[in-house]
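Hi support team,

I submitted a single chain yesterday and got back a structure, but I'm not sure I'm reading the C-alpha cell output correctly. Could someone confirm the output below corresponds to the sequence I sent? I've pasted both exactly as they appear in my results page.

Thanks,
R.
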Amino acid sequence: MTKPLRVGMIGYGFMGRAHSNAYRQVNKFFELEYEPVLAACCARSEDKIKAFAENWGYESYETDWRKLIARDDIDLIDIGSPNNTHKEIVLAACEAGKMILCEKPLAMDAAEGETMLQAVKKANVPNMVWFNYRRVPAISLAQQIVDEGRIGKPFHYRATYLQDWTISPDVPQGGAALWRLDVDVAGSGVTGDLLAHSIDTAEWLNGPIREVVARTETFVKERTHQETGETKKVGIDDACMFLAVFENGSMGTFESTRYARGRKNYNTFELNGENGSVFFDLEDPQILQYFKYADPKSGDKVEDHLTGWQRIHVTNSEHPYMDRWWVPGCTIGYEHTFTNALADFLKGLETGQPVQPDFASGLRTQKVCDAVLKSAGTGKWENVD
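Hi R., thanks for writing in. Yes, this is the structure output for that exact sequence:
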C-alpha cells in the first residue's frame, strides 16, 4: 500500500511537462513507498494552465502560486518556473513546511542560493535540484567507474555544452518561451542555463572546483523584447569559456555556446587520469567510452595489444537504473532521467537519506557560476569560495 504524495507543480512549459511525466511514470517502474498524486498545477495564464492540467491529469489548477502553497492538500512544491521566481517561491514553501523540488539553476546568484539553503535547513524540509543528467545511466556509470578507482589520479577534465538556436538576430528576448535570453529573468545566459549542468556533473565526478578564469561573449548585442516590442540591450552571455583548477589538483576546460551551428544539445565530458579515462556525449546517451590503462587494484598496465577505447552500451541490467527499464540493447531517453531522479528522491523519503543534488549542491554550482561571471568581468583568476 503506497502513501500518496500530493504534488503542486508551478510552471507548464518544457520542464513542467518533463516533471509531470516523471510523476505519472515513477511508480510504474520503481517499487516505492510513496506515490505522487498530481493535485494541482499553477501558472498566470488561466487558459494555458487549465489546458495543461487537463492534458496531464492534474486534479485542479491555480493562477497564483501563493494560493497553491497555502493549500493544506499539497505536500510537495515543484518549481519549474523561470529563475527569477525561485527564491520567493522557495521561501514561501519553507514557511509552509512543504517539500521542494527546484529546477536548475537554483537561483539568480549565490547570495540568493545561500538564503534559500538556509531556509530549507531551518524548515528541515526534503529538497532536491533537478540536475537530471546525473541520472543518465551512462553518466551514473562514469561516476561508478571513478568511485571504483579505475581512473586513478585525475589530471584533466574537459566539458563542452553546445547549441545553435539563438544565432539569428531576429530571435526576440523575453516572454514565456524566450525568458532565457532576458537577463532580468534568467540571471545569466549559457553560464547558468548550460554550464550549470556541466559544472554539477564535473564536481560530482571530479570533486570541487577551486578557482576559475573566464571569458564570455554576447554576439547579438540588441534584440526585440517579445512582450514590449522595444529593442533592448542583451544582457546574457551567448558564449562562455573558462579554465578551472580542481581541489584535487587536476585542470579543467569548459566551453558553452548557443552559436555552434549544427549542435543541438551537444553536452560532453572527458576525464583523464593516471589509470584510465572516460568520455560521454549526450547526443549518443546510451554509450560511455572507457579507456583502461592499468588495473585499479594491482596497478599493472594492460597488455599493449589490447589497449584502446571501449564503447560500453549502457543498457544491461547491471548498469545504473537499467534493471528498472527494458531488456539489454533497448535504450531509454531524456524523459527517463527525470523519472530516475524522482525515484531517488522518493526512496530518500523512505530511508531518511537526503538525495543528491540537494540545495547545498545547487549552491556549490551557483558559486562556480558566479566566479565564472566575475572572472569574465575582471579578466583575472577568481576563487570559488
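A quick pointer for reading it: The radius of gyration is 21 Å. Let us know if anything else looks off.

Best,
Support desk
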